[in-house]
Amino acid sequence: MKKKLIYISTFIIVLAFFVIGLFFDLSFAKIIYNNKSVVGMFFAAIGETPAYGGLAFIGGGLIAVSLKREKKAEKIALIVLAIIVTIIGTYLSSNAIKSHNALDIEKQWYISLPIAILICGGCGYCGYLLTSRSENPLILKTLFAMLISIAGVLLVVTLLKKIWARPRPRFVDLYSYDLFRNWWELNTGVREKYMELGVISDEFKSCPSGHSSSACLALLLMYLPHFDKKYENKEHILFLIGIGWTFIVAFTRLIMGAHFITDVTFAIMLAMIIIFVTYVLMYKIDYKKRA
């Protein structure tokens, strides 16, 4: 009950900041914007690790599960899936590090790729170790629940970014504050007009915040008790670690002029909903049937 209360309370707090943003998005962006922030660039580069490193973690876990399977077809299927999700996670991590939104070294893949391999390799190894030591008969279901949560957040946010086409704070700061669009104004035509003038499409992906939603996937740390019983009754600590990372990343996105308050809070709420719904569908209903 306490876990649910903490989760719901945090969601309400995020919702409150979202409502505040509806009135003060632009004014706050003007005050906090600093695109030269070193801290901002650092978290722009690694802030999405819970999503991309999480995929590698799942990949390592799937390898561990495959080694315990007797059927050859199951072994092959799990190994193939493990390789796919690990490669995707590493690729996305590398792109995030070198992108215009982070270190701005678009062509220097030879810098970002080794860092991404190191991060995702470490996450994958952790996933392998924890899963191989787990005695949980439903550990594969846990890995799939995590995978569905990550895939769901990434797909939903990517789709909404294209639909919203909201100009970023740094864009309106550079061109004109008259180009500011409220959170509820979808695809107002600013993107099409300025892309014809050579402005890159990324400047119109303010809502929802991809970094904030991916960072919020750090809440998947709450699945650790499914891997190791020593984490039982420590979910509130794991939650605080996850939400702490989320808030730090979200705040740095505001500093960098990449998003408005409503963008980051909306993204966090989306991720929290997807994580919660996935957990309920994958576990609670199943447990009720068993009971």
Compute the CA-based radius of gyration. Answer: 20 Å
Outline the low-pLDDT stretches.
287-291
Mean pLDDT: 94
Tally of contiguous helical segments = 12
Shape: globular
Q: What percentage of amino acids are in beta strands?
A: under 5%
Main β-sheet description: none
SSE pattern, N- to C-terminal: HHHHHHHHHHHH
The helix/strand class is mainly alpha
- Percent of residues in helices comes to over 70%
The number of distinct β-strands equals 0
Q: Give the terminus-to-terminus CA distance.
A: 19 Å
Brief overview:
Helix content is 73%, strand content 0%.
Characteristics of this structure?
single chain, mainly alpha, disordered C terminus, 73% helix, globular, 0% strand, 291 residues
What do you see in this structure?
There is one protein chain. By secondary structure, the protein is mainly α. The protein is built from twelve helices and no strands. It has helices spanning 2-32, 38-46, 49-67, 72-98, 109-133, 139-164, 169-174, 190-195, 210-216, 224-227, 235-255, 261-290. Helix 2 crosses helix 11 (235-255) and helix 3 packs antiparallel against helix 6. The chain is globular, with a radius of gyration of 20 Å. The two termini are 19 Å apart. Mean pLDDT is 94; it is low at 287-291.
